[in-house]
Amino acid sequence: MEYGCIGEHLPHSFSKEIHGLIGSYDYLLTEIERPDLDIFMKDADFRAINVTIPYKEAVIPYLSRLSPKAQAIGAVNTIVKRDGELFGYNTDFSGMEALLKRLGVSPSGKKALILGTGGTSKTAKALMEAYKAREIYRVSRTAQPKNPDIISYEEAREKHSDAEILINTTPVGMYPETEGCPLDLSAFPNLLMVLDAVYNPLRTNLVQQAEARKIPAEGGLYMLVAQAVYASELFTGKPVREGVLDRVFKKIRYDKENIVITGMSGAGKSAVGKAVRRITGRKLADTDALIAEKAGKSIPEIFGEIGEEGFRALESDVIRELSRENGIIISTGGGAVLRDENLRELRKNGRIFFLQRDISEIEPSPDRPLADTKEKVEALYRSRLPLYLWSADAVVLVKGTPEDTAQILLKNRLES
Asked: Is 214 tagged catalytic?
């Protein structure tokens, strides 16, 4: 390859798409097992590459020179070959700095906790030092007595609960193990900012915890795009046009974010979902249809055999699986919003649109056990409406044909 990214596991990396939007060069993702890194680096059969987990430190002995920033940090994420020599750089620093500025919180004079001790944690530490954080600690599973700046999670909770800045550089919560969360934020009441280097999913459990507490927080996608822009400049030797960073970030986020449709049974979710599919070409997943397929039974049969709780468990399983995907349409059942875990999963990669239809237009159906009479429909509507409204990123009024409503939804999405 001429340009690309090396790492141990790259099946769901966004880097190829990002570089495709930044530059006109071919960019390949190359998975390398640890025993093969030596051969790859000695051959150096490339012009320039990015380096990701777990090789940001391991590549350094193969390099002829390091930039001052990479030298100071002790980690490299960009390598450029010039006249047969390998030069190492760290554009992660500039990428994380761009994300820090986007969040708008200055670390100056504040206590910072950095989760993890790998290459990215060194970048985060250097950034906190550059912005004059008052105290900086890296947090590991076990403390390192020889290095008092590296503490355990237990010590972080017990002695540093007054931390104001939190940066996660561990892979906890990253695809495919998206259920993970490195820390319970309730132990840190003074937090002013949470930055998570994980970009897939778009909103990790950690980011969602922070958002629920009204703490400025964001995942690593903006950082990923920013470091790629700076790496591209090193690849080509030419500055990237102004505005490219924000344009590429918005495009990647727009493409990767799922469209999640919620609302009452009978509100038209399936029809609108199909209309959105026709307009966008995206894959459509109907959770009720998938539940029936998984169980090999109709929805009324499932309710009859295992009751509503059993059905809800199946629903949560289906939602958890779908929410790991990117760029799809998810049409949910009427009661999907009843479980917090469902909303948490749907928000990881999705924006939630509540289809609000006038109750007089929603008819009962024998296929919906909880809404098979007009009285049940009205009771459900009254009880669920506050939850639909609270959980939605946007409310879409059902008007005209499904295509009309789909266009309203997509216009709302484009403007948000």
From this structure: no
